Protein 1
Amino acid sequence: MILFVSVSFAQRDSLQIGDRYADDQIYASISYAQFNQQPSIISKSGFSFGVSTGFIKDFILNKQGTISIGIGFGYGYDYFNHDLKVQEINNTTVFSDSANLNSNIFTTHNLEFPLEFRWRTSNALKYDFWRIYTGVKFLYNFSNTFRFEENGTHFSYKNISAYNNFQYGITFSVGYDVINLHVFYNLTPIFKNATINTESVDTSILKFGLIFYIL
C-alpha cells in the first residue's frame, strides 16, 4: 500500500503545469433525504437519509485539466421514515395513508451511474482546488423493502411490483478540496402507475448533504 501511494505521488510530481492529467476519484456522500410531490393526504415524512460510494473516471477536455467529463459507478443506500402506507396484495401494490401506523420505514439499495460535467481550478501539481460538478445520475434499484407496524403486528413487503427500478436525477456539487456540498433531485417518480384515492402518486426524492472526493 505504501509503495502504491509513493508511486502515485511520484507520477503526479513528475508532471508540469499545463500537462494533461486525469483526476480519477473515489466518492462518498451522506445526505438528508425527503420525498417530493407526495399525495395531498400525506402530511409529512420523518428523518430520512442516504449514503453512497463509488468511483468516477475522469476524461480531460482541455490541456489545463480544468474541464472534464466524469463517468462513474457506485452503490447507494436510502432510509426513509415516511407517511405513505405501501402493501403488496396479490401482486398488486396498494397505497393508503399511514395514520394508524406506529412505524413506517422504507429502504432501498441502488446501483449508481453518475455522469458529470466538471470544472475546477486545479492543475497537474495543485491538489487543493475549488470545484463545480454537475450532471445526471442514473439509478438501478436491486432491492427495496417497505416495513410498518399496525395494531401490534409487523408487516414487510420486499421488491414491490409498482416500484420504478430505473430512475435518474440531476446532481450538483460545489466546494473546496475534499469536502463539498451536494444536491440530488430525482426527475422520475419512484412508483409506476400508482394512485391513492384516484390521485396519482408522483413521489420523487430530494437529497442534500456532503460529498467527499478522494484522489
Protein 2
Amino acid sequence: MTDEAPKYVSKIDRRTALTWIGVVGAATAAAGGGVVLYNHKTAGKPAAKGYGTDPNLLHPAKASWPRILTQDQLQAAAILADFILPASGTAPSASSLGVPDFIDEWVSAPYPDQLKDRPVIVDGLSKLSGDVLKADAAKRTAALAALPGSGFFKRFRALTIGAYYTTEAGFKDIGYTGNVARPSDPGPSAEVKAALDREFRKLGL
C-alpha cells in the first residue's frame, strides 16, 4: 500500500519562470558562473533560440523552447523541493510557490549553464521518481534522506533555494524588507550622529 504525495499542479507562468532564471542566473554569475543569453548549437544543429544578450524588459520575449520534464519528473521535483524547503510556520513550501516549474524552465532553457545542468537534474529526477512516486511514506523518506552529498542533490538544492528566496514569501521568511516604500525617514540615530560629530571634530570640520 502506498501513501502517495499530492499531485503537483503548475503554479507559475513562463514569464515568471524566465524572470527567476534571470535572477538566479545573476546570483550564479556573482559566484563565478552565470547565464549567457544567446543562441546555442549542439551537435551541429541549432537548438531552440534564446532571447538575446540584452532582453527588452518592457516587452519581454516569450520562451521559444518547450519544457522538457515529464509529469513524473515534475512530481519528483515537487517532492524533493519540499524535502529541502518544507512549509514551516508562516513560510510556505517550495512547491506551493512553483519552484518545480522554475526547475523545469531551467533545465529546458537552451543556454550553456542550463544545458550543463540538464543531464544532472533530469537523470536525477528520473531515478528519484522511481524511488518515491509509488513508495510508502517510510520508503520515500529513506530515498530522500540518501540523496544529500550527491552532485544531483547539491545542484537541485542550490536552484531550489535560489528560486525560493527571490519570491516575496522567501523575502519575508528571512526578514528582508527591501523594495518597500517607507512613509517617513527618521534619519540617523542619536548614537550615529554623536559618532559622526566626533569624527568630524578630529578632521577639524
Protein 3
Amino acid sequence: MDRLSATFSALADPTRRAILARLALGETSVSELAAPFEMSLPAVSKHLKVLERAGLVARGRAAQWRPARLEAGALKPAHDWLNEYRLLWEQRLDRLDEYLRTLHASDKT
C-alpha cells in the first residue's frame, strides 16, 4: 500500500483520529492513550501499529516506558493531495458565483 493510501486508511477510523489528537498534545504512554476509550491496552496497541505503519506515529523507548509521539510531517502528503482539490473546488465555486452574478444582473435589466 502506498504511503498516501496508508495515511487515509489510518485516518478513516475515529479512534485513531482521537489518538492522533491526543498525541498532538505531546508524547504519552499506551495506558494514557487508552484511558478515554472503553477498550483494552492490546486493542489500543493495534490502533497504534496501524498509525505507525502509516508513519503517523513513532514509538520511543525509555526504560520500561514506550512513549508514542505524533509524526505530524507524515500528514503533509495528505494535506497536499487534499489542497489540490480544495483549490479546484474554490475555482469552480468562484466561476459559479460569477455566473450567478451575471444572471442576477441580467434579470435586473
Protein 4
Amino acid sequence: MEKCSIGENAGKIWKSLNELENITIGELARKLNISVEHAAMAAGWLARENQITISWKNGMLFLSSKKGYVDFQFG
C-alpha cells in the first residue's frame, strides 16, 4: 500500500471521527468501505500525528477524535 492511499484513508477517518467521536475500528472500516487493515494503518498515522486516540475497551479497538481532548501529564 502506498503512502498516498494511507493518507487518503487517514483523511476519511479523521473527518468521520470529527462527526462520530468514538467508534470501533471495524465499524469505521465498514462505514468507509475499506479493510480493517487499511483503517488500522491510517489510524496509526493519525495517532502518530497526535490527531486521534486509540484505546482498548472490552477487547475491542476504539478510535476517537481528539476534539476536546486535553493531554495532561504529571511532571
